[in-house]
Amino acid sequence: MKYSYFPGCTLKTKAQELEKYALRSAEVLGFELEEQIEWQCCGAVYPLATDEIATKLSSVRTLASAKENGNKLVTLCSACHHVIKRVNEDMKTDKSTRDKVNNYLNISEDYKGEVEVLHYLEVLRDEIGFDELAKLVKNPLTGRKIGAYYGCLLLRPDKVMGFDDPENPSTIEEFIKALGATPVKYPYRTECCGGYLSLDNKDKAANMASSILLSASKHEANEIVTACPLCKYNLEINELKSKVTVTYFTELLAEALGVK
Amino acid sequence: MTRVKVNPSNRDKEISRIIEISGENIYSCMQCSKCSASCPANSEMDILPHQVVRILQLGNYERIVNSQTIWNCASCFTCGARCPRDIDITKIMEAIRLTVIRNKGESRIDVDELPEKIDDKMPHQAIVSVFRKYRK
Fold first, then answer.
1. A-chain residues near B109 (CB < 8 A)
2. Are residues A4 and A72 in contact, defined by beta-carbon separation less than 8 angstroms?
3. What is the Cα–Cα distance from A60 to B15, expressed in whole angstroms?
4. Do A2-120 and A137-257 show the same overall fold?
5. Spelled out in words, what is the top-level CATH class assigned to the domain A137-257?
6. In what helix (H) or strand (E) does residue A246 lie, and over which residues does it extend?
7. Which residue of A has its CA nearest to B45?
8. What pLDDT score was predicted for residue B2?
9. pTM, whole model, 2 decimals?
10. Chain B window 55-74: which residues touch A at a Cβ cutoff of 8 Å?
């Protein structure tokens, strides 16, 4: 199976591990991620204002290019996924945005939200299947206690993201289980890490991230996994204090598949 | 106790603009405060999220734009996810921020100060986000 793939700017710079291990694992799992030509930064945050058009254009270009190739679009970074999936929903359901964007972009065929946007974890869960994934594991992570950290952007708003139950998700726990490790559920796994507050309000972001790490360690997780570079950054600044290590979910995947 | 009557028909144009940009119906809020209780950044807020909505209903624009609350919202969408009246308060916070930063000279981030705030590990995602949230 071939998918169009949108990496996003952080995966080419500070979060190279997230991408590298995803691509290696995809090879083992038998699907191809074809990086889009001339992709542009998604803007990192979804434009929440009803009157903004320009900030949605790069996502629409990405979506229209996937449509042209006849592919589903796969993302890896939680933030890119959030932005592109929500812009896609706007193009599908909001006529005013759709008309303005299409008039401006002047692409050969109007884009109307036709492309299916999948996060890599959704490919594993819905296209490959966690049972199948478990069969391909070479180095089961037996005995490791791993907490899933979802954060905000994969889950909320549930009506648009449709990733999992926003209050009690289980996708990443099932993923951890498929790799042979023991998933640890802890209360703060869907709480915000502080996000972009860490640039201008470091203390606040540190507080928020510490609560998450403390919650994970209280429930005896030794490590936690995330799909978001900014979550990883915020959590890592504080990880020494809690002795909980933070990695990308793709590192865990590659390790279990024997390609790390 | 005095009963306060909310009259949307004679609100001022700034409040109308916030409502228009957000696309949310602030008048369906029943002040249950679930948003404020859920907000992970509430300790940094001088006005709690449900109070922001109330102040908008009452039309006090100055009180809202001069609050620290709007700059400490991390856009985590927890408030909207838990609102029993289906109001996306994150969109209201964004609309208030925009009514400020869309004015000339009202940017909340000084580009010259940025290099000091960025370390080697900080992802681009954080920097791009801040440009979108605090500057136009």
1. 200
2. yes
3. 31
4. no
5. alpha beta
6. strand A245-248
7. A204
8. 82
9. 0.97
10. 71-72, 74
